[in-house]
Amino acid sequence: MNLYPQEIEVKLSFDKVKEIISENCLGPLGEEFVDKLNFSTRTDRVNEWLSQTREFMSILTSSAGFPAASYEDVSPFLKQAEVPGSFLDTEQLHEIKAVIQTLGNINLFFKENGDDYPVLFWRLGHIEVDAHLLRALESKIDEKGELRDDASPELMRIRSAISKCQTRARTAVNKILKSAGGHGYTPEGATLTIRDGRLVIPVLAEHKRHVKGFVHDESATGQTVYLEPAEALEINNELRELKYAERREIIRILTELTDLVRLNQEDIARGLRMLGVLDFIQAKARFGIAFDCVCPEVGKKQNIEWKQARHPILEQALKEQGRQIKALDILLTPSDHILLVSGPNAGGKSVCLKTIGLIQYMVQCGVPVSVSEESKFGMFHSIFIDIGDEQSIENDLSTYSSHLTNMKFFLENTNGKTLFLIDEFGTGTEPQFGGAIAEVVLMELCQSRAFGAITTHYGNLKKLADKTKGIVNAAMKYDVKKLEPLYELEIGKPGSSFALEIAGKIGLDKQMLERAKKKAGVSHVQFDRMLSELESEKNQIDKLKKEVEAKDKRLSDAIKDYQDLKKFLDKKKNEVLKEAKQEAARVIEASNKKVESTIKQIQEAKADKKRVQQAREQLTQHKEKLSKESVKPEEKLVKAVDQNIEVGDKVKILSSGAAGEVVSIKGNQVELTLGGLTSRVKLKDIEKISSKQFKKSTEDRVKQMTGIDLNSKMANFNMTLDIRGVRAEEAIGKVENYIDEALLLGYPEVKILHGKGHGVLRDLVRNVLRENPKVLRATDEHIERGGAGITVVSLDE
């Protein structure tokens, strides 16, 4: 036996995981496979299951656009068709047609995308049904599941005759109804009606002999009879014969189609099984996406190295209460293969145990698991758990006796490939003896090299773990000051039960607590107090460590900013000096020319005092002009650095062209609002623009596109813009330019692929689109074609 006890799935809440997966199935075919979902110890099989789910998660979160599928179970119809001479009705054949169409679409999808999804292609990419059957069904049954008029020449002829016959009958009966109404033989507002498939007119009972014909029915009061006029009798008889002929032709066509279904029965049945597998895989993929799960690669050796592990069922329950789950980092290796978890009651010890059991069980069933990507998984050949009260009235077993029965099973069956989980180890009897037995059992389990996790309050077990190789202490962290659990697992040290502290918080009398301390014994109280103090000091050290790390990061950022600013200033300095030298040369040259011109004027004036005085005044004015126009290199440098940018100014990011408004300025860092979000950029990377430029940035970009080759642009235009992994500032520019281009080319709808992640890039895109008056709406893509990972943008044409 590799699983213990028999109800292990219920104890680990795996039954609830199966319920959620089943709810994600699109039909009964997938639900059957969920019921068969089982624990496997074959590494190759588990990895194949996980790879299939991983690939389908990729399909659902990408823009690949998996074809819409029909997952109806038509196997009862196939069974019915086995009888020669039988026929299926149009609705049944319509459902079979939908299934065959689905198989064909899926087959085509994997043929076109087989390289991207090799595992699914190998498993599901070769489902084919005879194309002749699909053509026959499509040619005879329409999209509403009704037999087409042109399903056969004979049916078309019959239905045409029926239509003409109905027109003749209606014309004749209408004529009689009008005549009878004129004589007052019919009730007020009387119209044609049908009884027993024949056209009749309502006639007042007292006048029924005035109209020749046959009575087919009468009203509940008997005041009105429904009469078939004699003139319409022959036409109605002809119509009934045509209806019989139509029915015979329909049966012949349906029988012919059913015979084709019978010939392809095995292929359709095989396709149904594949559809069930596909529905099951997509349901697991939807579960994985909903709970932020991964599909890891499972190794053959036994190992648990999990980061950010979360119990999915508990996480869902907490979300409904508006609370957030605390993820756990769990480590079990061949050198430290048993985890002894201690800590206060209601501190999360049992949840930790169940999280370990559920996630390992899920992964060995091929179900995505709620851990981070860097987690590593191993394969266990057996999982044994002892969780909860196992008291049995039928077997006359107390809780402790049940625990001992479980321990006996564990000791007889555990080995190096076993994962065992024991909750509240040794409880249920006198602590002195319970602790001693638990210590002996723990040593035996350790020597078996089995992997496991145990929760306990016993101090002797904590001491044993501290000095025994293979067993490692762990504690559920606790806020000593607030006396509140933190639900975080810390490996490497034991935890205190905080029994006396919790009792004090509840309000028990202090004198009673002092007496309890004496009863517990000095050594026990001192040990627990030491753990309590250690926990408090550890929490403070962690807090100080985080503060130091934050300061180090700010210091590193400041140093980097300084280095960037210095580099920028050095570059600007060289540019300004070079420009200043060039300007000085121009000034000297201009001055020389002016002096030469003045001397020439003086010489030509032949010492005329008035002319000489005018020339000197012109030279003085030129000198003053040069003095005003000259700018020192340092002033140019300052101007180049700050550009006189102030809070509230409109600026443009040079790299992307995105426009924003300055919120604050700190050193050489500027904080901008871009598309509803805040972003930081360097002063050197922006340029001041006017409010008019800021408001009309979208129109300006559209205008800049005039003059391009629109035919070429339209041919190369991609209906989906991929901005995954792009920085926020660059993404804004890309989205704005893309929308402008789509508007110019006249596209009514485009898509922006930003991925899901934490939703930051999605929110940025939505804010940018919201500010564009040409955007009518921005919605999530259909869940089967990417969901929240893609935004569908509808544009004003």
From TrEMBL:
PROSITE patterns associated with the record: SMR
Family per record: Belongs to the DNA mismatch repair MutS family. MutS2 subfamily.
EC number, as in UniProt: 3.1.-.-, 3.6.4.-
One Pfam family hit: MSSS
Gene3D superfamilies reported in the protein's UniProt record: 3.30.1370.110, P-loop containing nucleotide triphosphate hydrolases
Subunit structure: Homodimer. Binds to stalled ribosomes, contacting rRNA.
Lineage, top ranks: Bacteria, Pseudomonadati, Bacteroidota, Cytophagia, Cytophagales
Coiled-coil regions listed in the entry: 527-632
Sequence ranges assigned to domain Smr in this UniProt record: 721-796
Top enzyme class: hydrolase
Entry protein name: Endonuclease MutS2
Biological role: Acts as a ribosome collision sensor, splitting the ribosome into its 2 subunits. Detects stalled/collided 70S ribosomes which it binds and splits by an ATP-hydrolysis driven conformational change. Acts upstream of the ribosome quality control system (RQC), a ribosome-associated complex that mediates the extraction of incompletely synthesized nascent chains from stalled ribosomes and their subsequent degradation. Probably generates substrates for RQC. Endonuclease that is involved in the suppression of homologous recombination and thus may have a key role in the control of bacterial genetic diversity.
Keywords, in A-Z order: ATP-binding, Coiled coil, DNA-binding, Endonuclease, Hydrolase, Nuclease, Nucleotide-binding, RNA-binding, rRNA-binding
Binding site for ATP: 343-350
Gene that produces this protein: mutS2
GO molecular function, one term: endonuclease activity
